[in-house]
Amino acid sequence: MTFSIVGLCKRTGEFGCALATSSMAVGGRVPFVAPGLGVVLSQARSDPRLGAVGMKSLEAGRSAQRALSEMTASTPHSAWRQLAVLDREGGVAEFTGAHCSAAKGSHLGPSAIAIGNGLANDSVVGAMMKGFMAAPGTSLSDRLLLALQYGLDAGGEDDPLRSAALKVAQPNVPFSPVDLRVDYSDIPISDLRRMWTLWAPMVAGYVQRCLDPANSPPAAAIEGHPMR
C-alpha cells in the first residue's frame, strides 16, 4: 500500500523518485536510484531483489521496458508486485500485479510515472501526475514532493501514512545527493518536505566536499553554524 512518483527533469538532467506508505521505513525497501542509470521502484509486498535486477538491466544499457520485463520474469510472485522503471533516456515502464491491493493503478506523463496500490480511490495516481506537472520551473525534488502532496490531498491511502522518502540523482555526481527518509511519523510527507527545505541549501556544499575536498567549505559553514 504505497503511492510513488518517478520523474526526469529534462531541464536539469536530474532524475529521482518520492514515495509514501502506511508502513514503516519505505525508503529502505522500495526505491533504487543510480546516477547515470535511472530509477527502479519495487513496491506492494515489496521485494528489494527485484530492484537489484532492474538496476543491473539498466546498467547493461537496456530500456525501461526491457528492465521491467526482466524483473517480472525473475520472480514467480510478480502478481503481488507493483513495479516502475525510468531509464536514462527518460523512458518509463510499469507493472501492477493482479494481487496488488485496490484501488491501484498508474499514470504516465512525459518522462514520469505515478503508481500506487491500496489507495483511497482511483484518482490518486492521476492527481500525483498533475502535481508533478504543476510547477515545471522548480527543482525536481520540489516537483516530486508536490506530487506526493497532491496524491495525499486526493485521498492518499486507506490507512494512515507512516513513512516517506525522496531520492534524486544529479548529472556528473557519482552518488545521489538528495537521499532523505522519514521512517516513522504521523505526518511523513510534511516531515519530508521540512527535511528537504533544510537540506536544499546544503546540497551543493556537500557535493563539493566529495568531489573537491581541498577547496570545499567546512560542514559548519554549509549548515550555517557559527565558525569555530
Overview of the molecule:
By secondary structure, this protein is α+β, with helices and mostly antiparallel strands. The protein has one domain: 4-Layer Sandwich (Glutamine Phosphoribosylpyrophosphate, subunit 1, domain 1). Helix content is 31%, strand content 25%. The protein has seven helices and ten strands. It has helices at 48-59, 64-73, 124-133, 140-153, 188-199, 203-211, 219-222; strands at 2-8, 15-21, 31-34, 38-43, 82-87, 92-96, 105-109, 112-117, 163-169, 178-182. The strands form two sheets. The chain has a six-stranded antiparallel beta sheet with strand order 7-8-1-2-9-10, covered by helices on one side. α1 packs across α2 (64-73). The protein is globular. The termini are far apart.
Radius of gyration: 17 Å
Sheet with most strands: strand arrangement: 7-8-1-2-9-10
- What is the domain total for the residues? 1
The residue fraction in helices comes out at: 25-40%
Q: Please give the number of β-strands.
A: 10
Name the helix and strand elements from N-terminus to C-terminus, one letter apiece. EEEEHHEEEEHHEEHHH
Low-pLDDT sequence parts: none
End-to-end Cα distance, whole Å, is 47 Å
Based on Cα principal axes, name the global outline. globular
Strand content: 25-35%
**CATH homologous superfamily annotation:** Aminohydrolase, N-terminal nucleophile (Ntn) domain
Mean pLDDT: 95
The CATH class: Alpha Beta
How many helix segments?
A: 7
Which class of secondary structure composition applies to the elements?
Answer: alpha+beta
Determine the CATH topology: Glutamine Phosphoribosylpyrophosphate, subunit 1, domain 1
What CATH architecture do you see?
4-Layer Sandwich
